Amino acid sequence: MNNAIDIRMVTKTYGTVTALKAVSLSIMDNEFFTLLGPSGCGKTTLLRMIAGFEDVTQGDILLFGQNIATLDPNLRPVNTVFQQYALFPHMSVIDNVAFGLKMKGLDLPTRTARAGEMLEMVHLSSFADRLPAQLSGGQQQRVALARALAPQPKVLLLDEPLSALDLKLRQAMRMELKQLQQDTGITFIFVTHDQEEALTMSNRIAVMSAGHVQQIGTPRDIYETPVNRFVADFIGETNLLEVDVASIAGDRAQVILPGGHAITCSTATHDAGRHHLSIRPERLTLVPLGAGMEAVVDQVIYLGTDLQVLVRLDGGTPLQVRIQNAARTQVPAPGSRIGLHLEEGAARLLAD
Amino acid sequence: MALRSVRHYPSFFSIAMLCLIILYAPLIVVMVYSFNDSPSITNWGGLSLRWYFDVFTGPEAPRFRAAAWNSLTIAVLAATIATAIATAAALAMLRAGKFKGRSLTFALINLPLMVPEIVIAVATLIFFTMIGFTTGYLTILIAHITFCIPFAYLPIAARLQGIDGSYEAAARDLYATRAQSFWLVLLPLMAPGVISGYLLAFIISLDDFIITNFVKGAGMETLPTAIFGSVKQGIKPNIMAISTLMLGVSILFVTLSYLINRKGRQSP
Where is the ABC transmembrane type-1 domain (chain B) (predicted)? Predict the structure, then answer.
């Protein structure tokens, strides 16, 4: 089986600046794949190179086995949903949606019918004759989607398409996008800096930073078994502690926490020495004193669904703990001493 | 305390009035006296359109008609060619990325705006003489195209600068060739700037006197040079009528250019 996209050792330089450094990754057919990273990490550059808007300095881009790296954008069977939608302001909604079909040489009845179906799919049939400027941001977003899907591309590229929408709409659109991907069976490549978006929609995520792919995996992999400090820090909230490694055996390590407590954790590194340990705040639980670690409560922050408890280990290392704000939850008093429990293997030792 | 508005500065009103009078009194006098019934240019003899009829049917009418035809055809041709060149120049300057000598090119395109017109006039004449080009209709046209380019360029480039590159990218992404993306997407978006540039170039060409007078050669007249020739033999009221007509055409075109530009700015 062919992959939808194979990126092979792709490098992109602008003058003396290197935006991408020998990136390789494969995207499977019918996958919702997300390129995630902070701004300037090269994710948009990579997407634009797949679309054909940027030249590839070095390397190959394969679309179902065919090298497209040097093809003009109009010769690549991929379509893009742009960040600011880029709907043609002088054309009606239906003409926008039919544009790609017209350029492909389909006759008028066929393209009108297909564009009509697309508008129906995004629930905008009654807006066909409006101009884009007469639509709301959310509606424009749907037109952009319909326009990009109408020519039935082999891969759909989405460049932070939700970033211009307000929060409620953004959350609704996430579900809709995911549904659309499953219904059409088209491979989606989604670019975002929003880790929540990436976690909720993707089959797999490539976390990028400084022109490198840091880690590729399912949302669960990325969140629970990050390979390095950047990924652990970028995805979700975490406590990063510098620890001394006592011993490493296979994918398990024994480390000494500041304060002297020893714990067993999973590990992404096999080098002894000092490394960062990631402990997710929700994996820590508050327990009665006497079992396990001990800490002093500094502050309790009310977050609605959760409570964030800031504590300090003996020796002064601060940690944050998330506990559910359930009816039976006992809220610890600031200044009190409490016990902390960490499930075995819930912490992760990271490579740098 | 709020800052005092400029309106409340001392003698704001009188200075404003003085400026307006200096600017517009001569124009108003010419416009009013073009409707004078008297053959004198200073004495008021009642309201009439006789000098307007004189422009079209009087003794100087054939000369004016030929000159007006030259002016009009030169203006249309010069504006069309200059607009095409300016559009290409704007695309190269704003869509070709950074290239060596970009600032120099920008300066070269806009140089005619800064160089004194008389210098261009003399230089153009010397150039045509040196290469042995017979002065006449064609030399006027070439000279007009040259100095019209920067006037057409400015509104076109201003418009193009405001058009995000993602529209062209979207067109290319949706299987449009380079040419289709230009004709179907970019040009319609640029249209207000292009039309505005065209009208500006047209009016600049229509009004030009200095350069035209140098490169026109014997026996060739455009409207401004014909008016000047007529005035040299004494100012008659028909000159006021023809001037008023030209003023009307100029105002019409400048207004059109302004309106089109403004309408363009409202849409993205």
Answer: 68-257
Which chain A residues have a beta carbon less than 8 Å from that of B164? 84, 86
ipTM of the complex in this document: 0.84
* Domain topology for A3-224: Rossmann fold (3.40.50)
Domain borders along chain A are 3-224, 237-349
Q: How far apart are CA B221 and CA A247, in angstroms?
A: 99
Closest CA to A165 of A139, A192, A191: A139
Q: What is the pTM of this model?
A: 0.82
Any CB–CB contact under 8 A between A134 and chain B? Answer: no
Give per-residue pLDDT as tens, B10-67.
Answer: 888 899 999 999 999 989 988 888 888 888 777 888 888 888 888 888 888 888 899 9
CATH no., domain A237-349? 2.40.50.140
Q: Hey, are the CB atoms on A100 and B267 less than 8 Å from each other?
A: no
| Spatial distance between the Cα atoms of A196 and A80, rounded to a whole number of angstroms | 22
Yes or no: say if A214 and A207 are a contact pair by the CB < 8 Å rule.
yes
DSSP helix/strand/coil, A208: strand
> Which of B166, B176, B267 minimises the CB distance to A82?
B166
How distant is the Cα of B94 from the closest Cα of chain A, in angstroms? 16
The helix/strand/coil state of A219 is: helix
Q: Which residue of B has its CA nearest to A84?
A: B166
- Judging contacts by C-beta atoms under 8 Å, the chain A residues touching residue B185 are 88
Q: Among B266, B185, B268, which Cα is nearest to A84's?
A: B268
Q: Per-residue pLDDT tens for B178-193?
A: 999 999 999 999 999 9
